[in-house]
Specification:
Blueprint: E1 5-9, E2 12-17, E3 20-25, H1 36-50, E4 57-62, E5 66-68, H2 73-82, H3 85-103, E6 109-113, E7 116-118, H4 122-127, E8 130-134, E9 138-140, H5 143-146, H6 154-161, H7 164-173, E10 177-178, H8 179-184, E11 190-192, H9 194-209, H10 213-226, H11 231-248, H12 252-261
Parallel strand pairs: 3-4, 4-6, 5-7, 6-8, 7-9, 8-11
Antiparallel strand pairs: 1-2, 2-3, 9-10
Helix pairs in contact: 1-3, 2-3, 6-7, 10-11
The protein binds coenzyme A.
Coenzyme A is lined by residues 30-31, 33, 69-74, 116, 118-120, 142-143.
Length: 277
Amino acid sequence: MTEKTSETEDSVAFDVEGGIAWVRFNRPAKRNSMSPTLNRRMMQVLDELEFRDDVCVLVLSGEGAAWSAGMDLKEYFRETEANGLGAVRRAQSEAYGWWRRLRWYRVPTIAMVNGWCFGGGYGPLFACDLAFAADEAQFALSEINWGILPGGGATKVVVELLSMRDAMYHALTGELIDGRKAAAWKLVNESVPLSGLKARVTEVAEVLLKKNPVALKATKDAIRRVAEMTYDNAEDYLVRAQEAANSFDNEGRKEGIRQFIDEKSYKPGLGAYDKAR
Ligand code: COA
């Protein structure tokens, strides 16, 4: 888990260290806008990292001044549209594909929003389980400023996360909000000064690293799934999801019970059991 590997290839960069995969949008000169090339590369990187034993948490951030300035207006919109509907649909499925992959990723994911976050960037922002922003980061649904509706799921993201009034204001005005306001609106969990952002995200990732990985995956999926269920359906889903998780991890939860009830070495209300034993 402490081995360090590093690779930078074109539009996506990543390092794996101490159980955390640090993945970065890597087109700083284009403010990390998402081109078809970046979208294809990101899917490859996610694919490569998902089942590695040394990856237990994934953090998505951006190189330079941006997290992501949304879709690349030239390469994603203008150039694909010039190549016809087939090219447009292919580009959409490549972008939506890696966001969907990230929504249901094997390990917990954290968006570390270091700078600009616009429009299409709300897709991967929502796909990450948790989100931490720099106070200095700037967010906007800027689509209205250049004449389209917030597509690619961005409208759905703000309706899921914000109040109806804030979502409507955000989408209709295209006004920028900073990290502090994004946290107040619950678009992200928290905002902290940029100088302390990586330390705060590392701290949260380290909390997750201590937890049972099967329980983390079952829990993150459950949070997203039950959101659209009735209470009774959720109750039923959760029974079945836990039973399915048990077949992946027969020993972990028994060990968790044993360390609390028999050994009295920890309290589940106050922290995680020792996975190393
Ligand atoms: N699509 C394509 N190119 C983009 C881009 C995008 N979404 N965002 C930035 N770029 C490019 C610029 O065209 C410029 O390219 P150039 O150097 O070849 O001229 C380069 O990135 C730097 O952008 P610039 O505007 O000079 O940087 P800035 O720091 O002054 O401003 C932004 C940053 C993010 C405010 C500004 O680039 C911007 O408004 N981008 C568009 C954001 C947006 O509306 N995205 C929604 C898409 S759905």
